[in-house]
Amino acid sequence: MVYFCVRLNAQKMFHRLFLYLPALLLLLASCSSGKNQHNHSKQQNPADTVMDEALRRQLADYIKQKPQADHLGLYVYDLTADKPVFGYREQAPMPPASCMKLISGVAAMHLLTDKYFYRTTLYTKGRILNGVLQGDVVLQGSLDPQLYAPDLAMFTNALKRRGIQEVEGNVFFAPVHDEVPTPEQHWGPGDVVLPQYGLFYQPRPTILRALRNALQRAGIKVDAARVGIGTVPHGARRIFRFSRQMGLVLGRAWHNSSNTQSNGLLYTLGLESAPSASANPDRHDLRQRGVDYIHRFVREQLDSTGTNTIHDACGLCSENRVTAELLVKTLRYAYQRPQIFRMMRAHLPIAGTNGSFRHMMERSTARGKIQAKTGTLTRPYGISTLSGFCRGRNGHLLAFAILNSQMSILDAHPIQQRLCEIMIQ
């Protein structure tokens, strides 16, 4: 009887095992497949490897055909896979022209962030009696490169809203610097067009004249002799402030390749990178401090030393020397930081579409598919550069830098166009 029960139980267990065996085998196969899939995910997609090889071969074959290859620097980096794709003289120092604005702009974003504002503030001190301010008005300046003389109406309107029709005391302008922009030693004689700079970058007599005219247009009486340079007195009350986000300045520097906006950022870097400096450092000190900060950023954040020479932020200096590798390192640094990358994607121009890139690649297959900073200098010889982003054939985001020098711009642009066409094929 006992033998029969044991045999019966064994038969039942075997029967259950037989029923569940397929499910068990399927589970084991699934686990094994998942493990293999996980291990495979760590490896590179073979299709991507083939595409990389094809892209390298096409780029190399094209460069071999060009007699100007000795005056070309090229570096292509796969941001999606975080690996280099192709380099040709990528470590050769060459003039960047306006692609220098990429480095200085990213340095500005690193130090200032997108939350930095240029703040221009209006103060009064004294009491108002029957429309007369029995005291002083002070306009505290800033380094805002987009504030011009007509914008002073904002501040005179603020006085009128307070009921001020006449100022019995002084009207002061309180600057944050001393000098006006001057050419860097390697710039050309026409590279500083002073009227294009913001009001606070003008000579002081020009600023004071604009302030007197603004008060006069607003119908606010003031003794012209009492409009001058001063400081914000203790106990003054802020009645109005205008703020401009730094991103608006950087946007023009990148999208329109504005040298004045880029120089404004350089002076801002000089001021903010050494806030303990004297209250009113002269313009040369601000500019040099800004250049020093860019060097420090390149050395400490981009891990690049020795081969780069930087004299300005805008790229007008023909003696600037950077590598294609450094420009791509700058783009990679931006890509890895969402705030900076969003700024780039919002403001870098698009091939054949807008900004300084509008009239390039208009009839190319690359039109609308390349987002990059352009650079051009025609002295002392032809310099043309292009650095930015595009999508490869496998959908990966590529960062690239193309540096051409000692050749006609008419020769450089077709080379850049063809290299871009190869990258997106």
Short description:
Helix content is 41%, strand content 19%.
Explained architecture:
It is a single chain. The longest helix is centred in the first third of the chain and has 40 residues. Helix 6 packs across helix 10. It is built from eleven helices and eleven strands. It starts with a helix and ends with a helix. Strands 3, 4, 5, 6, 7 and 8 form a six-stranded mixed β-sheet that branches. The N terminus is likely disordered. 38% of the residues are buried. It is α/β, with parallel strands linked by helices and 425 residues long.
Give the SSE layout.
Blueprint: H1 2-41, H2 46-64, E1 72-78, E2 83-88, H3 100-112, E3 117-129, E4 132-140, H4 153-161, E5 166-167, E6 171-174, H5 204-217, E7 227-229, E8 237-245, H6 246-255, H7 259-272, H8 283-300, H9 324-335, H10 338-347, E9 370-377, E10 383-391, E11 397-405, H11 409-424
Helix pairs in contact: 3-6, 3-7, 3-8, 3-9, 6-7, 6-10, 7-8
> What is the helix/strand order?
HHEEHEEHEEHEEHHHHHEEEH
Number of helices: 11
Overall residue-averaged pLDDT value: 88
> What is the approximate shape?
elongated
Straight-line N-to-C gap: 81 Å
Strand content: 15-25%
Calculate Rg over CA atoms: 31 Å
The tally of strands reads 11
> What's the multimeric state?
single chain
Describe the main β-sheet briefly: 6 strands, mixed
Structural class determined from secondary elements: alpha/beta
Percent range of helical residues: 40-55%
Low-confidence region ranges: 1-42
Question: What would the keywords be for this entry?
Answer:
425 residues; 11 helices; single chain; alpha/beta; 6-stranded mixed β-sheet
